Structures are given as structure tokens and as C-alpha cells.
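Why run this: before we spend reagent on co-expression, it is cheaper to look at a predicted model of the complex and decide which construct boundaries make sense. The entries below are exactly what would go into the expression plan.
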Amino acid sequence: MSEFNIVGKSMPQLGSIEKVTGKALYTDDLQFDDLHYALILRSPYAHARIVSIDTSRAEALPGVKAVLTGCEYQKTFGVLPISYDETVLAVSKVRHVGEGVAAVAATTLEIAGEALKLIEVEYEELPGHFDPAAGIVPVENPVHDHGRNGSNIHKQVNLSFGDLQAAHSATLFEVSGQFEFPAVTHGFLEPHSAVARWSDSADELTIWSSTQVPFYLRRQLSRVFDLPLEKVRVIKPYVGGGFGGKSDPFPHEFVVAALAGKVRKPVKITFSREEVFISHHARHPSIIKMQLGADREGKFTYLDLDATINGGAFGSFGVVTTYYNGVLTQGPYRINNFRYQGRRIYTNLPPSGAMRGHGAVNTRFVKECLIDELAENMAIDPCDFRLANLLPEHTLTATQFRITSNGMKECIERVRRDSQWDARIGKLPYGHGLGVACSFFISGSALTINRDDPQSIVRTVREEDGRFTVYSGASDIGQGSDTVLAQVTAEVLGVDLDCIRVISADTGRCPIDIGSYSSRVTFMAGNAARLAALNLLQALEKGTGNVGVGEYESPKMGGDYKGAGAGLSPSYSFGASVVEVKVDTRTGFIKIVKVWLAHDCGKALNPQAVEGQIEGSVHMGLGQFLSEQLQFEGGRIANASFIDYKMILPTDLPEINAIIVESNDPEGPFGAKECGEGALHPVLPAAANAVYNACGLRLRKLPAAPDYVLSLLRHEHTPVGAKKP
Amino acid sequence: MSLPSFQLHMPHTVDQAISLAGSLKGDSAFVAGGTDLLVNAKEQLNCHKNLISLSGIGAMKEMSRFSIGAAVTIAELIRKGEILPPLLSKTARMVAGPALRESATVGGNLLLNGRCVYFNQSKLYRCSHGACMKAEGKACIAVAQTERCYAPFSGDLAAAFLVLNAEFELAGPEGERIVPACEFYVNDGIHANVLNSAELLVRVRLSEDAFDFNCDYRKLRPRSSIDFPEAGVAVAVKKTNERASELRVALTALGPAPSLAVLRDDQLEQAKARGLADTLWKQLSPSVLAVRNTSFSPTYRREMARLFIEQMLESLLA
Ligand SMILES: Cc1cc2nc3c(=O)[nH]c(=O)nc-3n(C[C@H](O)[C@H](O)[C@H](O)COP(=O)(O)OP(=O)(O)OC[C@H]3O[C@@H](n4cnc5c(N)ncnc54)[C@H](O)[C@@H]3O)c2cc1C
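The model came back. C-alpha cells follow.
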């Protein structure tokens, strides 16, 4: 018997029935009286000065109720206070193909479309910056004026821990390599959509938006429209996925707000898939160099990492991404000597940003592939090698991250056992292989983006009928956070789940939660909900009231070096994956035969949901590994559709063995920590290592498309970069 | 994204459809499943003021051992496939995905509009890059400075019908005509077949001969779940007294038109000495016009087609 009644039992997520029966209302489904429709005119140029915009013909078109251009709202915004660099629409110059230049609101979508054709924009084209490597020195007409010393550098990070020089002399085995990764998209199904409406008195704004971050959106709307916070209300209806692609305040949300203000009627915008590809904030294209050493005993001596990430035209989460590329790479291993040099470069591509596994997926790939090479050079089994180098529980890393619970060892042991690794490794025929890799990820950031923001507050109320309502700002974007809040509350209160109602992600009704990103919600909102329920229980027992409030704040932790806060989390997830592949060495096609993935999520509050996250991670990881890639030419996305952008389909998936490992985190709600992002990390390098095991290829870029694999098979049969003892 | 507005016409007979098309004077198109036509129309490609739906014409949805109505859906062809040469349902199963196959038709598949990374693009892209000659522009982009369109014909079923020696029954204002599959396609990405405007593909006919072949189809595509072919190869082998007496190989998606090579009796014997796959490839290669306008490189697509021929021959002749 479990010690819990509700927590730890699989259950369908709240709202599932509504979703599968088509009753759930997403933003685009919402009905409004007198709704007007907005469309955005987008720049055909990657980099150009706007000489003039003539909207008079559009304004004269019957049915057009408002036209907006960039000069009307020039205040910059963004998600991170250190990079407020976007505007509602382009002001004086455009920085990427597809950037908004003007917008219209009309009585029908068709009229709005006709109106866009009537807007005349004169541009003066500027040379485009597309190569990040060229942007590290001063350039003419940089993307922004605030790049370092006239260059296109947006952020530079130099971190060093331990003594790299001394580490080199203790090193017996060494591997290195340079890897390239293209941009990839989140691939959520529901496109961005937003509706804005102003009060009759024109001093209160309500916006419904498909967003992961209602409170950040509220803050930025209040800044740009110069309204007090309480006069802006953000409501998040059902959301059809986000994966990081809805975790910024986006220009279109301001566009509908501005247009609705002009029209004095509700105004809606829903993106086409192409607009999603332009606006999504893709995973950063990156070039990563790494060197990794081990000593005679098979212990890591050092890790030396260099990453250049292509930020595109705006900042987004990029400063954080730049740090994450480095600092999240060290775990789950003990590596005391660690150097990271990273830079994010502005280019004239659509902006890059956060995507599931934020900032760490590509460097994780590099590291786990190089570990495989290192193990091979040392003639140690890659599972054994990893096991010998793991961080223990309750320790500090070189970067002074505080590790609490740690189920890493069990994760490796489980995938090793279930895949029959020991019986099969090295014994499979040519073309057939197994590979292993590990992961390490945060359960939310211990520091908040806006210093004064609390992490998460939950208020739980006992209603007249004896039932309970949980109010939380947390955004359920399909990941099931409402269900987690209900489960945690029901467990504490000792009632059934159907006694709990969750009202969430409405800034007008709910206390703050800063958003669904960086895998923070189960841990942080979950803790807040638990405290709220405990406080309510106490109040009920004492007869002092019917309300319980809980707030989660992260404990103080971390080093005192510059950037010490980046990557700091109250708890880390761990995981391991074994992937089995067959490579058709005549065609270069990689068939993924089977995946085992063990993830330490602390405690699975809803095991079915954890399995879902693992399966979704495998799906997304394999897509990036096998075929996904945004193709740019001249700054244009050449494959901005789901037929040309090769996201794999469920039927392309192999059998997935999702294994839940529970390390029971001392600070997580009922021991829980993250499972939404970490599980993505090990899949890609495990697959790459399996390809090596199958046919001796060391992949140096993704995706592992068949023509690339075939060319490697023909030209490059020996591993590169390995120094033999 | 919404469709441009159009008038939908719903004829019930082939004759009505043809006369409608004739009277609408060129500003109309037939629409069957719409999985090609309407997708393009959303990007304002190949738009027409009038669409003549074929879904109400019962006669075009009939299927028998020797005749497949052009409006038969791919899903239906699979469901009733056992009366047909097995190659057809095998190939049909590789067309798009299950949901699309419920709407997609055989006729639409054979008359698919050519696809190209420069043509199948949004208005914004075309405006930013400049449009190609198949859209609003003047010249090909994939092969710079040429005024020939290289958009590959990317349907799967054509290759199967070619090796089965099928015939296409057409009907138009000028009457009916029968065109053998191998004379139907033209290597031009703008208009890739001999169909006249207002002419309808009514059905595909097979002869008894089609049942005498052992066949196979393989396609190269990034994802096995949904993608268009980037090279498709159908191979058919007829054996007489345990010996191969006829070999037919058809290619699709390697140029604006699918193509066919045949080896019979004496030629076959001679070819054996030089290598069958090599001989067939030599026959086919003049019609292969693969250029850099799909996801894979043209070299890779050609190489894979050549490999598929070899591998399929090997197993069919074994
Ligand atoms: C995501 C996706 C994946 C796809 N994958 C594949 C694939 O793997 N393989 C493949 O072959 N196709 C694929 N397709 C294309 C398409 O779905 C199929 O080729 C389908 O069979 C087309 O048939 P339809 O009835 O929908 O054609 P429609 O769109 O109705 O018509 C296509 C063209 O043919 C004309 N037409 C149709 N019927 C007739 C007729 N009887 N007489 C005269 N003209 C006619 C129309 O005017 C139009 O120009 C894919 C499409 C999508 C959207």
C-alpha cells in the first residue's frame, strides 16, 4: 500500500475529456461580440531601413478599422530585463525576414488581408548578418547598436573553475571535437493566438493569449501601454503546447492590444504556421567545441567548452541560453576543472530563444558523444565509465550548484539492465548498435528573472459546499500543471480529486506564478499548493478561516562569482537512455529500433503524466536527431511548414520504455522534481553513440539525415579527435 | 490561413463536368480530394475562381479488376486492393498518411502538381526571394537562368501504373481518348501531361497482362510516415517458364515526368551480360532531371534510385 491516497497514482489530466471531445476552448475558439481581425504585414527583407510607410490606401478600405505602425509604440520589451530589445512593430529598421512592419484590424479576415496589400513600405536594404562567427568583431550596420564594441555580440560568458592547466598534466586520455547544430522548432500544434479588449473607459486591458507566461506578459503590457499592473489582465485559455515557444511576451500580443485600443472593439490574431516558424524563438543554431580529459584511473580531469550560439535578431531568453550552454553541461558528473567560453551573436535571422531542454541539449549531445569516445579510448564500458564519475547526492558541483536528491546511478543501472546491455554490447552485427547517454537538468531556476517577483503563490479556498478551489497563476499548457495542483491539494486535504477545482493562469483572479518554463511548475507551484493546503487545513482545524495561502521561495544558495545564479536550481533531475539502432549502410537511413529512458523525477505525482513527458521527450529528441532542421537561405526560412520541416510523426517512433526512478527529493512537493525537459537530453547522444556502435561513425552535426550518414560512411571511417594512450 | 474564395460546382456526370469546364472558359479546375489543389490554393498558388468537384460523379468512383475510377480514394483502393495487382495497394499504402488517403484520389495522384522548394512557398517567401516561373515569376530558381521548370512530379502511383502498362481514359469537349500511361507524361514542370484544359481523367484501365508480373515499389523519403517521394521506383518482372521474359522499371519524383524502361526477350538476354540495373538505368537516365529543389540532394536521389532498382531486381529475380 502506498502511503498516499492520490499522489503517485496515474490519472488522466484534468481537461482531457474536453480536449479529446473538442469542447475545450483554445484562444482562437473564444467568441466575442463584434470581434475584429488583425493581420501583420511582415518584412520581406532580412535587414533594411524603413524609409517610409504609407498606410492611407489601407485605411480607406471599407471594413478596415485601424492601422498600426511601429512609430506609435517605441518602448522596447522582452522577457529578460537585461534585453528589452523588441518593439511592437519595427521602428525605423527591420532585422529579420518576417518582422512585423504594420498591422491592420478589420471587420473580417479577408478585408484585413486585402488591406495589407495596400500598405506601401519603402525599404533601403542593408547587408544581412547571417554568419555568427563574423559577428564577433566590430561590423558595419550591426543588428543592434548595443552589441559589444560595435560587434553583433549580444552576450559573452567566460567562466573558469579549478585549475585547467594542472588538470592537463594529470590527463592521460583526451578527446575533442567541433559540432554543428541547426535551429529546430518546438512543433506545438496550436499556433499563437491572442485576443485583446479594452474596457469602455479605455483604461483597462484584458488579453486572452496562448502563453506560457501570463504574468510576464502582464508586466510588459503594463510597461509598453503605461498602465498600472492591476489595469492589465491576462487570461490563458486552453493551450495546445508551448515547449518554450510561448514563453516570451510576443509582439503580436501588443499588436492586438494596440489595435483593440484604436478600434474600441475586441481584436484577435491567430498565426499561420509560417508565422509560428517566424515568431517561435527556435532552439539556437550553435557551433560547439569541446575538449574532455580523463586520468589514468578513468576519472574526468577537465572539461573545456566553447559555444557560439546564433541569437537571431532579438534577445529573448538568450542571455540565459548562453549560460545554460555552459553550466548545465558539467553534471551529472564530478568535473572539478571546468572552463566555459560562450557567446550569443545577433544575426538577421528570426530570433532564437528557449526550447525544451533550454540551452543544454546541444552541449549535452557533444559531451555525451565525447564521453563515448573517451570510454572507447580507455577500453572501458561507457556505462561503467559514467558510473565511476557520477556526482553523489547532497553535494556541490564545481559551479557550486547544490545537488540534493540524485537517482543517476539507478537510472543508468535500469536502462543497462532493461536493454540487456551487458549481454549485447559489442556482440551485435555490423549496422546494429546500442548507445548510452545521461542527462542533468534544473527544476526551475532558483533566482527569478525579475528580482522582485515571488516564484509562486497559491491560494486555496474552502467553498460553501465544502469543496475547494485552488487559485494559482501557473499555466497549464498541456503538461498537466492543473492536475498536479489538484492532486497535491487533494492529498493534503484528504479529499477526492473531484472536490477540487483549479482556477489558474488568470492574472485578474490568481496570485502570481511566474510561468511554465524551465521545468519549474511541479516543483514550485506544487510546493506552494502543498503549503496552501496545509495552511488551510490548519485554519479549518482551528476554526480560524476558510483560506490557506502558500508561497514558494527558493532557499539561498550558490556561489558569488559573476553569473553564479544561472543554472542554480533547488533541485536537479537526472536520467539515462539506451537507444538501439539499425543503420542501413547502403542508404544511410538510421532506424531507431528501441529506446529505454530512465528519468529521476524525484517522485512521480502522476506516473502516467511522467511517462507521457518521457515519451514526448523521446519523440522530440529523435526528431532533432534524425531529421529536423530549419533551413535558412538569405535569412528566409525555406521550410516553414510541417511538410517541409521534417518533424517525425508518432508512427515514426520506435517502442519506448519509459522508466520512472524516484529519488524523493527532500524539498520537492511529496519529493517531486522536474520531468518535462531533462528527459529530452539523453536521447540524441544515446542515438548517436548507437550509430557509432553500429558502424563506426562519429556524427559531428545534426540532423543525422541519411545523405549525411552515407557521406560519412564513405569518407570517414575512423573516429576523429581521439588521442590514443 | 484561409482559402481564397471560389465557386464550387457539383456535377453528377462526366458529361456535366466537361461541359461545365468548357463553359467556364479556363478559369476553372477540377477538384477531387483537394489534398493537393487546396493546399496550394491556400498559398495563393494555382488559384481558380471556379472549382468543379468530382466527388458527386458516381461513375468515377467505381472500381473493378480492370478499371479504377479516377475519383476512387487511395484508402478505398487499399481496402479493395485484393482484386487488383498487389503492387497498387502496396504503393498506395506509401502515399501520404492515413487521414490524407481518405480524401486523396487516384486521379489527383496521377495529376499532382509538380513540387519544388521554390514553388511550394508562401506569399511572403515568394515576395522576399522572388517567385519562380511556376508561380508568378519568369524563370526557374532551382536551375538559375533557365526558362524550363524542373519541379518534380512527386506522385507515387504513376510509377506503379507505368510498370503495369495501364491506360488512361480521358474525356473532354472533343470526346474521349485512351492514352497509354507511358505516353501520358511530359517532362515539363509547368504542364507535366498531355491532358487538355477541360479534359478529365475518367478512369485507369488495366489489362489481363498486368496480373502476370511480380512487382515491387520503393520510395525515398525523409519520413516513412508521410512524405512525398524524392525518388520512387517501381519494378515489374514477368516470368515465362521460370525465366524472366520482361522487365519493366518506372521512376517517379526524379524529374517533371515519371519515366519507364522496358527490357524484353532478346534485349533482356543481352542486358544480362552488361548488368540489368546498369542497362535499365542507362535507358532511364536521359529522362531523369533531378536538380536541387527537394529535401535531399539530386546526387543522393539518383544514387538511391539506382540502388533501389538493383536491390528490387535482385529479390524479384531470385
Ligand atoms: C502532407 C501531404 C503528404 C503527401 N504525401 C504524398 C505522397 O507521399 N505521395 C503522393 O503521391 N502524394 C502525396 N500527397 C499529395 C496528395 O495528397 C496525393 O497525391 C493525392 O492522391 C492527390 O489527390 P487529390 O484527389 O487530393 O487531388 P486534388 O488536389 O483534388 O487534385 C490534384 C490535381 O489534379 C487535378 N485533378 C484531380 N482529379 C482529376 C481528374 N479526374 N481529371 C482531371 N484533373 C484532375 C486537379 O485539378 C489538381 O490539379 C501528399 C499531400 C500532403 C498534403
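Residues A 643; B 29-37, 39, 54, 70, 74, 95-96, 100, 103-105, 107-109, 111-113, 155-156, 200-201, 226-229 surround flavin-adenine dinucleotide (CB under 6 Å). Confidence is low (pLDDT under 50) at residues 719-725 of chain A. Bring this page to Monday's planning discussion.
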